[in-house]
Specification:
Blueprint: H1 15-28, H2 31-42, H3 53-56, H4 59-65, H5 86-89, H6 109-121, H7 127-144, E1 162-164, E2 170-172, H8 173-184, H9 189-197, H10 202-208, H11 213-226, E3 244-245, H12 250-277
Parallel strand pairs: 1-3
Antiparallel strand pairs: 1-2
The structure holds zinc ion.
Zinc ion binds near residues 60, 61, 75, 139 and 143.
């Protein structure tokens, strides 16, 4: 959300969150797709990230922050708490143009995941565009599962809500969900992913693979409503707002909700890649 001119640190699941999603997804890729993804990424001429799948899952944030601000809106869909309307939040879902990577700046994550999945699956797509489609998908499926990337209280997805976590640390509600709760799961993305994969049952996987970006956005939105925004903040962005302390039980509930969202994002990312690259 730093495309809105806000300080970073609040840039979507922090880099650890995206690495966890990619590591979970890797577990569920078919061997063919696993190899294909690694081969495609190894050939990436871009130097913004290393070329392994976990590093590339953070590429889209780096890309946006290095002179491609026109992709900033693609990282979220601000469904308003007081007027939940997916289409309006998605700039009325514009047509993408011939290349999704060149699509209009006013577009949202729900449309972009669909567009990039279509491109990745289409053998007629150029190799360069397919690589971009893969890299955007590695990141956007994660972002869509951060509840505050699919909900807004006229507060820039929680970026305008300062929290008091005790001590000198300054964090806002959005950044808390991006990084603080994720770090509470552990500081090694690979081991956090392994622990989360261990909790996923075949039934969970089958359930989570249903639906698509619009229903995944609706799910994130409802978690924002029932978990993230129970912080009791007022709508809007006002300067010098007093920091809010977390209510009792908030942190534990947030941590568990974030863990399940990371699991779902990993399973769904794998399903999209398996579909697009090994139909
Ligand atoms: Zn992002």
């Amino acid at each position: 959300m730093c495309a809105l001119g806000l300080p970073t640190g609040a840039a979507a699941w922090g880099s650890e969150g995206h690495q966890i999603v990619a590591a979970i997804a890797r577990h569920y890729l078919t061997p063919k797709v696993h190899n294909k993804v690694d081969r495609m990424l190894a050939a990436d001429p871009d130097t913004l990230t290393a070329h392994d799948m976990l590093s590339e899952a953070n590429w889209a944030d780096r890309y946006r922050n290095s002179g491609h601000g026109q992709t900033g809106n693609w990282h979220f869909v601000d469904i308003e708490l007081d007027h939940p309307d997916l289409k309006a939040a998605c700039f009325n879902m514009p047509a993408s143009g011939p290349l999704a990577s060149q699509g209009p700046a006013r577009d949202c994550i729900v449309s972009k995941i669909r567009e990039f999945t279509r491109e990745l699956a289409d053998p007629a797509t150029t190799a360069a565009e397919r690589l971009l489609a893969l890299k955007f998908l590695l990141h956007f499926v994660g972002d869509l599962h951060q509840p505050l990337h699919a909900a807004d209280n006229h507060d820039k997805g929680g970026n305008c809500v300062p929290l008091n976590l005790g001590g000198p640390r300054q964090v806002n509600l959005h950044g808390y969900w991006d990084t603080v709760v994720v770090r509470e799961l552990g500081d090694n993305a690979q081991s956090v992913a392994a622990a989360l994969v261990g909790r996923i049952t075949p039934g969970d996987k089958a359930d989570w693979e249903k639906g698509g970006p619009p229903s995944w956005a609706a799910e994130s939105y409802s978690i924002a409503l029932t978990t993230a925004y129970t912080i009791g903040s007022k709508p809007g962005c006002v300067p010098d707002r007093a920091p809010i302390s977390l209510p009792p039980g908030y942190d534990a509930a947030a941590r568990e909700a974030a863990a399940v969202q990371l699991e779902k994002a990993g399973v769904r990312l794998a399903a999209l890649l398996n579909y697009a690259l090994d139909p």
